[in-house]
Amino acid sequence: MEPILKARNLVKRYGKVTALDNCDFDLMPGEILAVIGDNGAGKSTLIKAVSGAVQPDAGEIWLEGKKVSFPSPIAARAAGIETVYQTLAMSPALSIADNMFMGRELRRKDWRGKYLKMLDRPAMEKFARDKLSELGLMTIQNINQAVETLSGGQRQGVAVARAAAFGSKVIILDEPTAALGVKESRRVLDLIQDVRSRGIPIILISHNMPHVFEVADRIHVHRLGNRLCVIRPGDFSMSDAVGFMTGAAEPPADMQAA
User: Fold this and answer.
1) Is 241 strand, coil or helix?
2) Where are the domains of the chain?
3) Closest listed residue to residue 216, CA positions, set 226, 197, 228, 203
4) At residue 136, does pLDDT exceed 90?
C-alpha cells in the first residue's frame, strides 16, 4: 500500500538550529497516525512543512503519488489538506456558520452574488448544520450563535467539523484535547474516530499517551529532528513510547527509521 502523504529527507533550519534533519514521513490511507515527540523534537515543524505553513530548505513531499510543494496553508487546503491548530484559528465573535466558511464564503448564484458580492447565508447555514449533525454535535442548536458562547469541547467540535467538511484528502489535528476536560476530550476522540470511519486519514499530534494509544493505528516517534521509528500501539506500552521519544530507551534496531 502506497502512502497517501509522504515526505523524504526534509530539512528545515532556523539559523544554526536544525529543526528537521533529513526527516521522513508516511501517512497511509484511512489510518490515524499519531506523531509524538519531546518538546523541541521538531514534530511541529514537520507538520507545518507538510501543511504549507513553512517551506522546507530541502526534501520532497508527495500527495497521492504526486510531488507537491505548498507555498502556503491556503495551497495545502486547496489540495485537500486541512489543519486544526491547537489555538483552533477561530473568530470568537462570529457565528458557527461564519467560522465554518471563513475564507471560503459562498456567494449567491444570482446577480446579487455576482455584482454585489452578497453571501448565500441560507446555504452556508444549512451546510454547517448538516456537517455538525453528521458528526453528532446535536448539542449545538443555533447555528448562528457566536463561537464565544460555546464550551471548549463544542468549539473543538466545530473546528473538527470544519476540517472534516473541507479536508478531502488529509486532516491534521494539533493537540486537539490539550485544554479540554475528561468529558469534552471523550467527545473529541469520538469525533476523530467518526471522521476516520469516513475514510479520511488523520495525523494526530498529541502528548496525551492514553489518547494516542486509544485511537492511533500507528505512532510516529520523532526525536532530534528526525523520525526515530514507527510503532504500533499493540506491540509496545506507553512507557516504551515515552522512553523512545525522550531517549531513555532505544527501539529495536529493525524498527528504527522504519
Assistant:
1) helix
2) 5-93+146-255
3) 203
4) no
Q: Is residue 258 predicted with pLDDT exceeding 50?
A: no
Mean pLDDT of 118-135: 87
Buried b (16+ CB within 10 A) or exposed e, 33-71: bbbbbbeebbbbbbbbbbbbbbebeebebbbeeeebebe
The whole-model pTM stands at 0.87
Q: How far apart are CA 92 and CA 149, in angstroms?
A: 8
- Summarize the confidence of residues 218-241 as an average pLDDT: 94
pLDDT at 151: 80
Average pLDDT over residues 27-39: 94
Task: Give me the CATH topology for the region 5-93+146-255.
Answer: Rossmann fold (3.40.50)
Rounded CA gap, 157 and 150, in Å?
10
Are 49 and 57 within 8 A, CB to CB?
no
Locate cell 529532528: which residue? 225
DSSP state of 191: H
